[in-house]
Write a structure and sequence with these properties.
The complex is a heterodimer of chains A (114) and B (112). Chain A has 114 residues and is mainly β. In chain A, 0% of the residues lie in helices and 50% in strands. In chain A, the strands form two sheets. In chain A, strands 2, 4, 5, 6, 9, 10 and 11 form a seven-stranded mixed beta sheet that branches. Chain A has a four-stranded antiparallel beta sheet with strand order 1-3-8-7, with no helix packed on it. In chain A, a hairpin with a 6-residue loop joins strand 4 and strand 5. Chain A is globular and about 40 Å long. Chain A starts with a strand and ends with a strand. With 112 residues, chain B is an all-beta fold. Chain B is built from no helices and twelve strands. In chain B, the strands form three sheets. In chain B, strands 2, 5, 6, 10, 11 and 12 form a six-stranded mixed beta sheet that branches. In chain B, strands 3-9-8-7 form a four-stranded antiparallel beta sheet, with no helix packed on it. Chain B has a two-stranded antiparallel sheet with strand order 1-4. The termini of chain B are far apart. The relative contact order of chain B is 0.34. The model of chain B has no long low-confidence stretch (mean pLDDT 93). At the A-B interface, strand 5 and strand 10 of A face strand 5, strand 6, strand 10 and strand 11 of B.
């Protein structure tokens, strides 16, 4: 059983640029969610995708967008990067509808915006 | 809205000491409750969970009981080890909105 993998692991961008982060979900999982974890804080929910549709969104502006593909892998896109976007971005996969809602996390992509 | 509050860290203990990390939550429905752990340089891992009131989750010597009357899910371990040094996150799963809400995390350092 393959776990959740994310790429790239680290990247540096400058303010105003755009970034795409990628995630491969755990085998058999149909739901992917993305989280932003600023230094010293807990993960903040960005959005969730189920069967290629966004079906939940946290308090993040529209310049944060995503995609889910037929194989359940996912992308997070952030446009017009700001300094405050510097964080660890976590992808988690799960089976929607499970009563326990357990998340399986990747190790994250650390984004630094200069 | 839903929220999770944890005791502030860092918490520093000696090996074999008793650990309690407090967690309280606010939720409109009846959420599932979780503790996730993040070891240095690693992603978050599920430590334990409880899906309804009075359930006790346990794993690796850690345990937590879902207390609906006090809206709490405190994490306890009777004898901590150096290898338990990590950041611990309390979280709730909103069955209605189908998303997770995490607390800010509590850093635990266990000294030999």
């Amino acid at each position: 059983e393959t776990g959740v993998t994310q790429s790239p692991t680290h990247l540096i961008k400058t303010r105003g640029q755009q970034v795409t982060l990628r995630c491969s979900s755990q085998s058999g999982h149909n739901t992917v969610s993305w989280y932003q974890q600023a230094l010293g804080q807990g993960p903040q929910f960005i959005f969730q995708y189920y069967r290629e549709e966004e079906n939940g969104r946290g308090n993040f502006p529209p310049r944060f967008s995503g995609l889910q593909f037929p194989n359940y892998s996912s992308e997070l896109n952030v446009n017009a990067l700001e300094l405050d976007d510097s964080a660890l971005y976590l992808c988690a996969s799960s089976l929607l509808g499970l009563a326990n809602g357990e998340l399986f996390f990747g190790e994250g992509s650390r984004l630094t915006v200069l | 809205g839903n929220s999770v509050t944890q005791m502030e860290g860092p918490v520093t203990l000696s090996e074999e000491a008793f650990l309690t990390i407090n967690c309280t939550y606010t939720a409109t429905g009846y959420p599932s409750l979780f503790w996730y752990v993040q070891y240095p340089g690693e992603g978050l891992q599920l430590l334990l969970k409880a899906t309804k009131a009075d359930d006790k989750g346990s794993n690796k010597g850690f345990e937590a009981t879902y207390r609906k009357e006090t809206t709490s899910f405190h994490l306890e371990k009777g004898s901590v080890q150096v290898s338990d040094s990590a950041v611990y996150f309390c979280a709730l799963y909103d069955n209605y909105g189908q998303n997770f809400v995490f607390g800010p995390g509590t850093r635990l350092s266990v000294l030999p």
